[in-house]
UniProtKB/TrEMBL annotation:
It comes from Dethiosulfovibrio peptidovorans DSM 11002. Keywords: Isomerase, Pyridoxal phosphate. One of its GO terms (cellular component) is cytosol. GO terms for molecular function: alanine racemase activity; pyridoxal phosphate binding. It comes from the Bacteria. This is Alanine racemase domain protein.
Length: 353
């Protein structure tokens, strides 16, 4: 095996996906499995597509193109670019929108391609990322619904990702009220009211999701078994679907504090060191070009990450559980951001179990 490596346990991913899809379906909620964290690798996406989800959703058209042959409806999560309107209609069955000008471009592309393209109007209920303000939703929906080639499939919202606003019966209830207003004032029916992402799981399991919410987009909960808002493991799910592995290239006992006059490190920061005397240190062949230090943690809880340059990560292994030697491999758990970083890096080997 080539290192560093991202190792994917597809059976555990299948179990996570199936369990959450069932929890949602039992409550009348359809599910989009979010594939962006693993860059739309079709070998992984196909596992989720076969595990009971209703859509595969991604933020990048490049990823949707890789998954073209997977027989499941696909969603473009990120608001489309006007410059990519034609590609959006070609690669996505549905896209999430908030701008009328973008919808005009999608309409023009759909008509030219003799296709119908579904859109879901995003409404901002407080997190302040994408979406129209609720008092503009009816007028915006009316205009979109009149465009040829487009089907206004429903409305949705995003929570937790930018403003860290938690889903609640109040803000999701506001989204339902907006859906009701659009239907009554525009004379149309909305099939979908999409109530957010993995941060809505706790509300779902506690029975707090308003009745009309009938779609969730789940990424973190399925891929690493965690609830987004507080990063706790959801009971019954696997948090170790993904493993990061790096090879030891140096083992030395050295002082805890660098010797000599200090300036800034390779990334322009002034590092701070604690004097712990002489410590056994391991260097693994991975760095900040490949991985965020705050996104991984050694599975050996007695090993500490001291820091990293662009291509060397330094670990304190003095109290570690293993008697390491050169060439040994150290395994790490990853956060959602860690899976994203490892999946994106072309220097990290992807290994599918």
């Amino acid at each position: 095996m080539r290192y560093p490596a991202l190792i994917v346990d597809r059976e555990k991913l299948k179990e996570n996906t199936s369990k959450l899809a069932k929890e949602c379906h039992d409550r009348g909620i359809k599910v989009a499995a979010v594939s962006k964290v693993y860059c739309g690798m079709p070998e992984i996406a196909s596992v989720q597509a076969e595990s009971g989800v209703d859509w595969i959703a991604d933020s990048r058209l490049e990823n949707l193109a890789k998954m073209r042959d997977i027989d499941i409806p696909k969603i473009l999560l990120r608001l489309p670019m006007i410059s990519q309107a034609r590609e959006t209609v070609e690669l996505a069955d549905m896209s999430f929108v908030s701008e009328v000008d973008t919808c005009r471009a999608l309409s023009k592309a759909a008509v030219a391609m003799k296709k119908e393209h579904q859109v879901l109007l995003m409404v901002d209920v407080g997190d302040l990322r994408e979406g129209v303000w609720p008092d503009r939703a009816v007028d915006t929906a009316r205009e979109i619904a009149s465009m040829p080639g487009l089907i206004l499939k429903g409305i949705g919202t995003n929570l937790s990702c930018y403003g860290a606003v938690l889903p609640s019966p109040e803000n999701l209830g506001q989204l339902v009220s907006v859906a009701d207003s659009i239907e009554s004032e525009c004379g149309i029916h909305l099939d979908i009211v999409s109530g957010g992402n993995s941060s809505s799981i706790r509300l779902l399991l506690s029975g707090g999701i308003p009745e009309r919410i009938n779609m969730l987009r789940l990424g973190e909960s399925m891929t690493i078994g965690k609830e987004t808002a507080d990063c706790t493991v959801i009971p019954g799910l696997h948090s170790d679907v993904f493993t990061f592995a790096a090879e030891v290239i140096e083992l030395k006992t050295k002082p805890s504090i660098p010797i000599g006059k200090k300036g800034l490190d390779a990334f322009g920061h002034e590092p701070v060191f604690e004097d712990r005397g002489l410590r056994k240190r391991a260097i693994v062949a991975v760095g900040q070009q490949d991985m965020r230090l705050d996104a991984i943690s050694p599975r050996d809880k007695k090993t500490d990450i001291l820091g990293a340059s662009s291509d060397h990560m330094i670990l304190d292994v003095t109290d570690g559980e293993r008697d390491l030697k050169i060439g040994d491999v150290i395994e790490f758990d990853l956060s959602y951001g860690g899976v994203l970083a490892a999946s994106t890096s072309s220097y990290v080997t992807k290994v599918l179990l």
